[in-house]
Amino acid sequence: SAAMAGTEPEDDVTDELADEIDAKVTLQKELQDERKTLPVYKFKEELLKAIAEHQIIVVVGETGSGKTTQIPQYLHEAGYTANGLKIACTQPRRVAAMSVAARVAQEMGVKLGHEVGYSIRFEDCTSEKTVVKYMTDGTLLREFLGEPDLASYGVVVVDEAHERTLTTDILLGLVKDVARFRPDLKLLISSATLNAEKFSDFFDMAPVFKIPGRRYKVDIHYTVAPEADYVDAAVATVLQLHVTQPPGDILLFLTGQEEIETVDEILRRRTRGLGSKIAELVICPIYANLPTELQAKIFEPAPPGARKVVLSTNIAETSLTIDGIGYVVDPGFCKVKSYSPRTGTESLLVRPISKASADQRAGRSGRTGPGKCFRLFTEHSYRKDMEDETVPEIQRSNLASVVLSLKALGINDLVNFDFMDPPASEALLKALEDLFALGALNCRGDLTKTGRRMAELPLDPMLAKAIVASERYGCSEELITIASMLSAGNAVFYRPRDRAPVADAARQRLNAGNAGDHIALLNVYTEWEQSGHSAQWCLDHFVQPRTMRRARDVREQLGALLERVEIERRSCAGDLDAIRKAITAGFFRNIAQRRRDGSYRTVKSWRTVFVHPSSGMARVEPPAGWVLYHELVETTKEYMRQVTELKPEWLLEIAPHYYHNNNLNKPEPKKAKAHGQTSSGPVVAEKPSLNLKDFFDV
Ligand code: ADP
Ligand code: MG
Predict the structure, then answer these.
(1) 193 Cβ inside 6 Å of ligand 1
(2) Spacing, Cα 64 to ligand 2 middle (Å)
(3) E strands, 130-287, where?
(4) Which end of the chain has fewer CB atoms within 10 angstroms, the N or the C?
(5) What is the pLDDT of residues 38-73, one digit of tens each?
(6) Is 518 helix (H, G, I), strand (E, B) or coil?
(7) Helices 67-77 & 44-53, crossing angle to 10 degrees?
(8) Does 622 sit behind a cis peptide bond, omega within 30 degrees of 0 on the bond before it?
(9) Under a CB-based contact definition with an 8 Å cutoff, are residues 104 and 119 in contact?
(10) pTM to 2 decimals?
């Protein structure tokens, strides 16, 4: 006992410790009081009663009413986890899952990862203790593979269902099915928008529980004429609001990390120039890849007298609620995924938002008092040009990945799968063809052993295939390194303007042999590892340490998965061709051939593309004749990102079902015909010999 050890427990409690405990108690009390002010609180008992009485409920409430943070806690408090079962709450976005879990852990006074945790791709912050689990919709989809009846969950909350992401839509179909044979499972579908009837209809007329929001009046201002440059206009508007308007924080919607970083920099420069003439402007960026330690900053109030401006992607449209926003600046754009089943290309494009999005964004300013929204587009374009609703992602995505997951779940009849909005049959067909070409499906459309292994890897099917193929080339170690680097984020290298030549030289060295970006990524990782994961090494080579640490985590998990799918971990000890062949086995459809004018033409779809300026291959002399690319991105032109040189013969060796040998190595004809086969390399086979009739009624 304590007495026997000679110290009474009280003796250990110093004054500082006592103060610290007091502070914690006060904070807990404040947090608990704050919880009671949320709109959902008043409906707690009613909501719990409805959940007790019905298996499936659709919950609708304004953003910020407390759906995400409170409802799982209510369920936990009401004993839904007493039977040892967990509560799952899915989010379309990783940042939302992490940030909300952190908040709920704080409210419950527990350590994040204990009773409350989160699980996102390549990052599992949960333990045996975890009963409230926030996760991305993709993570729950993967969990289905190991546990098709979701036996460890007592409640599943499909949150942010209105976002209609591809994975959410697939989940909706799957959980609906599970609910049928698990009457004890409670299902909550939570949505921020009012067209909840659609969800209710889908779940066989499930009751809709409405949480009346308090929304204050929002004054909407439009520009008189269209803005030529919305980034400039946004910066000017923010600064003007800051100097002319009464207190209230500003929320500016931008389309992505790069744009946010640009605006961040401009705002910093411009406000510095104004010195002490104006109040302080605290700039808080938030986007998907923002490091965890900076994510909490957006929720911190600005110091007295200062104003906060949050620069956000559409993550703050409904996923995250930031208190105290009085002004919204909305340029009216977002990045959307679009997919052409015909060419098989998926691209992220900056596009005008929908009316529904614009209204959601405006509403963010009227949560705690009357707000103002400044739309950087005209009233005419709002009324006449903008779509009413965003098209569900399932209707504009490459479906290969979800089709592979569904196949792995034993769902073969895709046409009759319970989709809320079915995808175009053309897109489904394309996904099946792609998976067939990758060897994941056989000609009857059944999952092959390769397909089963691919489905276990939480990666795009092409990358998964490259890893599976690495077994044959004896380079699985190298392939998981490359896959980790590709998955760890786009920012591997940085290039400070004032030291650009040094940075470029360092980069050039890592690009040794000009074998391509994939090999360069491998070199980066290998050298970093040899340096003992040194931060100094990163500094010396202009490599982002954060990306490297993340790559190491991802790699560790991929390594474990290799063992699970019984792929031997082997290194090819520098045989670059082996590595490139394995990559080709996954990416043989992403091939382009150089043309005399310096552009490239994709072999598959005859598109004119260019090497992305950030690629190490952009400055190689002589330029590569045939290249493989990881992805296409469209900005001013269509660019290939992550580019590696290959030999066209490999295509015939590795993907003979996809390429026919016609006129290999024949020079480009003097006058290229507008149409027809003028290719001087392998040509795409007319049609893969997949017998679709057997399983797909088109
Ligand atoms: P809903 O899901 O209905 O949109 P939430 O449960 O997300 O509402 O938000 C309820 C409240 O919790 C809001 O006032 C929001 O600002 C706050 N909140 C949510 N996440 C965090 C966080 N990570 N830090 C601080 N406050 C947060
Ligand atoms: Mg929410």
Answers:
(1) no
(2) 7
(3) 132-136, 153-158, 186-191, 208-211, 218-222, 249-253, 281-286
(4) N
(5) 999 999 999 999 999 999 999 999 888 999 999 999
(6) helix
(7) 70
(8) yes
(9) no
(10) 0.88
How are beta strands 600-602 and 591-594 bridged, if at all? antiparallel
Place of tokens 């919709």: 137
Q: Is 664 left (phi over 0), alpha (psi -120 to 50) or beta?
A: beta
What is the ipTM metric for this complex? 0.99
Is there a contact between 357 and 317 (Cβ–Cβ < 8 Å)? yes
* Cβ atoms of 608 and 600 closer than 8 Å: yes
What was the pLDDT predicted at 565?
A: 94
Please name the residue whose Cα sits nearest to atom 25 of ligand 1: 299
Q: How confident is the model at residue 679 (pLDDT cuts 50, 70, 90)?
A: very low
The SS3 assignment for 381 reads helix
- The candidate with the shortest Cα–Cα distance to 93, out of 361, 290, 363, is 290
Structure tokens at 249: 């924080």
Residue of 99, 103, 368 to mutate, ligand 1, most atoms within 8 A of C-beta: 103
Torsion, CA 24, CA 27, CA 28, CA 31, rounded to 10: -160
Question: Confidence class of residue 664 from pLDDT cuts 50, 70 and 90?
Answer: very low
CA distance 296 to 292: 7
State the Cα angle at 108 between 102 and 111, rounded to 5°. Answer: 55
Helix (H, G, I), strand (E, B) or coil at 88: strand
Q: 236: which residues sit within 8 A by CB, 6+ positions away?
A: none
Quote the percentage of the chain above a pLDDT of 90: 70
Name the residue with higher pLDDT: 68 or 414.
68
